[in-house]
Amino acid sequence: MNRSLRFIKFFGEKMNNIPQLTINPNAVNEVIKLRRHFHQNPETAFTEYWTTSEICHYLSNLGFDISYGKTLYQQAYPEVQHIADLVQIDKKHVDDAYQAAKSTIKEQKWIDAMEGGFTGVIATLPCAKKGATIGFRFDIDGLPIKESEHQKHKPYLENFLSENNNMHACGHDGHTAIGLALAKQIAEHKDELSGRFVLVFQPAEE
Q: Which of 56, 112, 117, 57 is nearest to 83 (CA)?
């Protein structure tokens, strides 16, 4: 038996030992609802102000410890004052997007700390039992692409089309939704779980 076949056999045996979980329809519906929510307002690299605010709000309600904004970036880059100090990006575009978001976001609690393009979130939650730290990463940015309004395009048909000139063309709305749904499952079962969970919602992956 060659190496590839041995690996497939070994992997298959291991998979058979994994407990089969019943999928909760409510959890599935939550992912769909979240994904469509984020699909409607995609934001490009380092302008994910609304997206970050929504993530912070959701995770804080679940009891996660939230690290975000300029203070998060300054842990690694103490002197940084604007994201343009770290990456090549149009500073005016970042600042204009901040002002636009600040004027429209309902939940104002989070956005001030993001001024200057400091988007993204790191959330942590310790569980009841001691154990390893487990991390998950999720992309949150969209692309500057106009979404199709073709009659057969599902977001158009089901009324969750992008409301700006950007698009979640690479599925980061889905990544974000999965991350938040996972966070909810962790929070609901933290007394049964071991270790500490770290969820990284990464901006500007594109």
A: 117
Q: Could you read off the pLDDT of 161-205 as tens digits, one per residue? A: 788 888 888 988 999 999 999 999 999 999 989 899 999 999 999
Please identify every stretch of the chain with a pLDDT value under 50, giving residue numbers as ranges. none
204: helix, coil or strand? coil
Residue with tokens 């500490």: 196
Sequence-distant (6+) residues with CB within 8 A of 20 are: none
The string of DSSP codes covering 101-153 is HHHH-S-TTTGGGGTTT---EEEEEE-SEEEEEEEEEEE---BS-PPP--TT-
> What backbone torsions phi and psi does residue 67 show, to the nearest 5 degrees?
-120, 125
Tokens of 172: 């980061």
Question: What is the token pair recorded at 116?
Answer: 């200057």
As annotated, the active-site residues are 139, 206
